[in-house]
Specification:
This protein is of the alpha+beta class. It has five helices and twelve strands.
Length: about 280
């Protein structure tokens, strides 16, 4: 079975449909800071979670040049007001150009707002992420969905999502029987798994049918496994060809001996007939 090829078919099937952004991809607008003066360091748990999740989402959507996936950079959502800014850990903008890479994302210049935003909770921002930012993302900015997740197993489990409906009201997304949340905007299923030894609740994206979106490391292992399988199949075919060739050679030698024996017998009969 071609796992990588099968996934590509499913990926095309489940990719969301969306309109293209009306603005222009903008790397930087002077006057809008693109980094904190005193950035707070994240824990390793937070960093591992954010980077692995970004890696999965970024690679999944890189097949479409009109999907932009951002990681921990500023999103300015009101022109002329540098205080109207958020910095989600990961966000996806359906319709905005994938490239160039932005220092910050300016909604008015791009003609688009993030479709979905993700925050991974840390002690410094957990309360804001879980409460104050819900109306900011979904009402002030116009994000369609907003998800938060606590990766630290020493902290209480938190995995929530909210969706802005067409009428403008906000609803909390209900988990399914397994605890997963479904992103209608991205057409992806979201669920965390516990990583023994790493002591982390790792949030991961899945296709609607439950197929996991592999990490870069997992994808490399899949490619190596596929290559090994090809090598095994080639070796097996070559062995079968050698066995078939040897059998053909043995059969040819046997036929040659049979013909030689038949000719010798015919020669002996002819000599006896002369006597």
């Amino acid at each position: 079975m071609n796992i990588i090829g099968d996934f590509a078919i499913k990926q095309q099937k489940y990719m969301p449909v969306f309109p293209k952004a009306t603005g222009t991809p903008t790397q930087y607008i002077p006057g809008y800071p693109y980094e904190d003066e005193h950035p707070m360091p994240a824990t390793e748990l937070h960093g591992v979670q954010a980077n692995i999740f970004f890696d999965q989402i970024y690679r999944y959507f890189q097949v479409d040049e009109n999907i932009h996936v951002g990681l921990d950079n500023f999103i300015y959502y009101r022109e002329g007001d540098i205080t109207k800014v958020v910095a989600p850990d990961v966000y996806v903008v359906l319709g905005a150009a994938k490239l160039p890479l932005r220092r910050s994302f300016y909604t008015w210049a791009e003609g688009a707002v993030p479709t979905v935003a993700f925050e991974f909770l840390s002690d410094a921002t957990a309360r804001q992420d879980q409460h104050e930012k819900v109306p900011v993302y979904l009402q002030d900015i116009g994000v369609q969905e907003y998800f938060i997740h606590q990766p630290d197993t020493e902290r209480p489990e938190v995995f929530q999502g909210w969706r802005r409906q067409e009428q403008g009201n906000i609803i909390e997304i209900e988990p399914d029987a397994s605890g997963a949340l479904f992103s209608e905007a991205l057409n992806l299923r979201l669920q965390w798994e516990y990583r023994p030894g790493e002591e982390i609740r790792l949030l991961r994206p899945y296709l609607p049918d439950g197929t996991p979106i592999a990490t870069s490391i997992e994808m490399q292992h899949l490619k190596e496994s596929a290559e090994r399988q090809v090598e095994i199949e080639v070796a097996r075919r070559q062995h079968a060809e050698r066995v078939a060739a040897e059998a053909e050679r043995v059969a040819a030698e046997a036929e040659h001996r049979r013909q030689a024996d038949a000719e010798e017998l015919e020669r002996l009969r002819a000599e006896l007939a002369k006597r």
